[in-house]
């Protein structure tokens, strides 16, 4: 009897060991804690609150908890996706991930340099007659088009008269020479100096030494000269920063001659050192598909 009990207990232990040996495969849903370092040893990101505080990267607006993803579903970067395969719950592993399996190489086409001293044309020409698709007219002006009606273009003080209605609605600019126009967010107003059959010509209402704010810029600029051809601006340096717009994050950096606008992911071109601890494995989704 004692011998049978020993065999039975051994079988239970062996079975438990097999259960505990469950390893990550493609299709499993897992969660990991991670510490991300760059090659210089600096901690860049982590899912662990205490580590974030120790390395002065704590962000009170985010939640620190294990990161969940499904392996093989492109939920995360390739190096992590591949690196967790074969791990067991509780395992810790260091992954050195090259750019091609991280956030990619740096794309030079996403880096734009603006001269710190920049000339902008002083004279601007606008079409005297503009056209807008008929099906967009109501959304733009809040009314149906009617020949002879006067409408104000949104976020400006520019008046147009409805001239013709077809698949497009033709609008004729109403203003006269000397009229001062403004656009919401523009760095300066403009004065109409000439109108001919096709175009409206304007000049800027801006003076030397004025400090202006270009729309969307994280820095301000000083007007260093104004003449009949150009407005010369000096973009005033600021510390490195990021600008979040509707579509992307842009990193801004000033050097001695240029403002560098970089639209690459911040970790593009970098080798990443991830210390990863596997917290959980859920094989349910994979098992259902097998």
From TrEMBL:
This is Peptidyl-prolyl cis-trans isomerase. It catalyses: [protein]-peptidylproline (omega=180) = [protein]-peptidylproline (omega=0). The keyword Flavoprotein does not apply. GO terms for biological process: protein refolding. It is found in: Cytoplasm. It comes from Candidatus Methanoperedens nitratireducens. Keywords: Chaperone, Cytoplasm, Isomerase, Rotamase. Gene3D superfamilies: 3.10.50.40.
């Amino acid at each position: 009897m004692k011998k049978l009990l020993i065999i039975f207990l051994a079988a239970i232990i062996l079975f438990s060991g097999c259960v505990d040996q469950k390893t990550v495969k493609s299709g499993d849903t897992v969660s990991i804690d991670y510490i991300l370092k760059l090659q210089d040893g600096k901690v860049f990101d982590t899912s662990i609150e205490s580590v974030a505080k120790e390395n002065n990267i704590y962000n009170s607006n985010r939640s620190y908890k294990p990161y969940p993803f499904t392996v093989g579903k492109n939920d995360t970067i390739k190096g992590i996706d591949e690196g967790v395969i074969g791990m067991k719950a509780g395992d810790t592993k260091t992954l050195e991930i090259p750019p091609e399996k991280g956030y990619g190489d740096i794309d030079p086409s996403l880096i734009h340099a603006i001269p710190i001293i920049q000339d902008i044309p002083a004279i601007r020409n606008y079409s005297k007659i503009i056209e807008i698709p008929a099906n967009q007219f109501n959304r733009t002006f809040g009314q149906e088009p009617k020949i002879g009606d006067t409408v104000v273009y949104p976020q400006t003080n520019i008046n147009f008269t409805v001239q013709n209605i077809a698949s497009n609605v033709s609008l004729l600019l109403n203003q006269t020479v000397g009229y001062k126009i403004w656009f919401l967010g523009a760095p300066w107003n403009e004065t109409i100096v000439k109108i001919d059959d096709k175009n409206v010509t304007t000049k800027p209402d801006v003076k030397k030494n004025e400090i202006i704010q270009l729309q969307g810029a994280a820095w301000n600029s000083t007007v260093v000269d104004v003449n009949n051809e150009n407005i010369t601006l000096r973009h005033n340096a600021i510390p490195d920063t990021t600008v979040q717009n509707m579509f992307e994050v842009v990193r801004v950096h000033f050097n001695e001659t240029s403002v560098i606008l970089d639209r690459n992911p911040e970790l593009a071109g970098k080798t990443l050192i991830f210390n990863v601890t596997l917290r959980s494995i859920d094989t349910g989704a994979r098992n259902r598909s097998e």
